[in-house]
Amino acid sequence: MNYETVAQYSEIIGGFAFLIVSIWLFRKFVLPAIRAGEISRNSDLVNTEHRREELREEVAEARGEVEAADRDAQAILARAETDARHEHETIIADARREGLRLVQNARGELDRGRIAGRDKLRIEFIEQALNRARALAAEQLSDAGNAKLVAKTVDDLTIGTGV
Q: What does each C-alpha distance from 58 to 14, 63, 64, 65, 70 come to in angstroms?
């Protein structure tokens, strides 16, 4: 055998050895790292899926709470409108009652004012009539007629027939 053949076989055997060592190193170090990465990635995917499902549940709960809050808000609004309408009606009724009371009081005051005015007017008419009668009586009655009239009035008053 010559050296050239040995060199050729040496290269072939070296190539096979390199290939075998490369495969062994790949299987010893690279494949476990790849498998660990796959496991980690799969675990991340599972966790992400689980988290997504949790978030979906939270979103569904939040939507339910929002819908409940909307219903509550509508109920509050309806109740507020009812209360406001009732309060409005109460205020209007109170104002009407107060207005009627004030009108009745004003009518009473007006009637009392009319009566007082009539009485004052009567007094003024009576005073004017008496003044006019005194003036006419002073002009038309003599002392003898006056004495006779006074005597008759005194007699009527003492007897109780009245004038």
A: 63, 8, 10, 10, 18
How far is residue 48's CA from residue 42's CA, in Å, rounded to a whole number?
Answer: 10
State how far the alpha carbon of 44 is from the alpha carbons of 31, 35, 49, 59, in Å. Answer: 19, 14, 8, 22
Residue 1: the pLDDT is 66
Instruction: Quickly tell me which residue has 């009081």 as its tokens.
Output: 105
Alpha-carbon span 149 to 146, nearest angstrom: 5
pTM metric for this prediction: 0.42
Instruction: Look at residue 160 in the predicted model and tell me its pLDDT.
Output: 64
Q: Do residues 141 and 149 lie in contact, with contact meaning Cβ atoms separated by under 8 Å?
A: yes
Taking only Cα atoms into account, the Rg of the chain, rounded to an integer number of angstroms, comes to 63
Task: Give the number of C-alpha atoms closer than 13 A to the C-alpha of residue 109, restricted to the C-beta side.
Answer: 6
**Consecutive sets of 10 residues in the chain, 163 residues long: mean pLDDT of each?**
88 94 93 92 94 95 95 95 95 94 92 90 85 77 76 81 50
What does residue 142 show for φ and ψ, rounded to 5 degrees? -95, 175
**Any residues with CB less than 8 A from the CB of 146 and at least 6 apart, and which?**
137
Structure tokens belonging to residue 154: 């005194």
Q: Where are the domains of the chain?
A: 3-159
